[in-house]
Amino acid sequence: MTVELVGALMVFVLAGFVGFEIIARVPPTLHTPLMSGSNAISGITIVGAIVVVAAGYTGAARWLGVAALAMATINVVGGYVVTQRMLNMFKSRKKSRKGGRS
Amino acid sequence: MISTPLLQLSYLVAAVLFIMGLRQLSSPRTAPKGNATSAVGMLIAVAATLLAFEIIKPADLLIGVAAGALIGGLLAWRIQMTAMPQLVALFNGLGGSASALVVLGELTRPKTAALASSSLVAAGMGILIGNITLMGSLMAFGKLQGVIPTGAIRSRTLPWLNLMLLLACLGFTGALVGAPGNMVIMLSLVGLSLVLGVTGVMSIGGADMPVMIAFLNALSGLAASATGFALHNDVLIVAGSLVGASGVILTNIMCKGMNRSLGNVMFAGVGIADGAGGVAAPGGGTVKQASPEEAALMLAESDLVIVVPGYGLAVAQAQHTVRQLADELEKKGVEVVYAIHPVAGRMPGHMNVLLAEADVDYEKLKDLDEVNPMFPQADTVLVIGANDVVNPVARTDTSSPIYGMPILDADKAASCLVLKRSMRPGFSGIDNPLYSNDRTMMVFGDAKDTLLELVVQVKQS
Q: Which fold is adopted by the domain B282-460?
């Protein structure tokens, strides 16, 4: 075990705890947007794909990188767009009246 | 070019924005802002990465991003809300697959120095989890889309096969540490993990999909984390861990909603009798039928109506018609609320999204604990395409597969209308004594047609 690995484990575990704390507060009505929104966050692997593609390898590594980049981009772009579409539909008439809309 | 510390700092900012974004999901009012916050975090992470690395093949980069953005954007814009479970499953699978491919790219690239053992173990886990997520999600997609039979499969051999596949994959991950770059080992791991994704989800029935989708969501996060460990990239680890936590929480809520453990969902395969129960009269009692006119009168004369939507509502695409009916009833001074069971539909929150699309005020969507005390005061309950979630057997019959599952107390209301296509039992194939209850009336037919008829009748009453 290296110090670097322990550091990474620490980051992983602490982030998990933060995740549990904040996500437990999401109301059931938003569970689908939570799934698709967190799904978009898991598209963070796009960063890894960029690193692999940018390096300009030849052969298998090149195509694996391009495929990974395309898939991760679908995940990120599609995930955020569809989540926004869903969230914009959640309305409360009570609240909007208070907001002064007729 | 930006320096490495600056890159790491950008990743920190991105991680903080993800956390803040998820926090804002705690209320429907702040949620749209939360999603945007999270998207900005992603943008910062991507931009910093692009600036930090020397880009040797910009064309490859452009092709990958352009293709992905086009496909993802089109799918997200055009998808119908009723098809949301499929889309979430698909995106999930692609995310997992991307993680696995990144790891493979890292393993096959020409290297200047050997990878550390811990990175190799993480790489193996990234391939394993990513590929299970990919194939599992594609299976879920197929079942939700109706391309693959949706019935659950109960098999004694399947769990053992899955266990053996998992052990073999872990074995090959170990072997990878001993012989990094060995193509046979790598391809075996890839192949077996793909098979495991298929066999693992194959046995899951449609009604158990909410659990499975939430679980695959957790896996897609863990795959990203594993990739982060392999690449020594902290933002991947943090983001993956957050998503993993979210998926685990949702899986847990869904399991509680069915009173089953994850292991039970994955291996037991309830619902084997899907449809096999045929048209047997439930509980031996007689079933009363109501015409749409009678039903409309019952609704219009109520003070409080509780609507219980289920997967049948999504299938019939009847969410807008329900809203119309509620509008008409409200014009007559009837209070209408919606009772949402945690596992109604095919994914967590499925019914809420459908009703939000139909412009139903989210304040009127009540969850189990909130709505159950309201049933005894309700004059009429309107059950639309829901079955197991209102089955009183879950309270009383210890021998029933759904015994102990928390249900909506529709049978405690003064009267109950059930809109149903036919007398076929639900996904679990269990008879529902609610239908033969004295105070229950059945209205047979397509949910949407019946609702349209009800709208007309209520208007006239």
A: Rossmann fold (3.40.50)
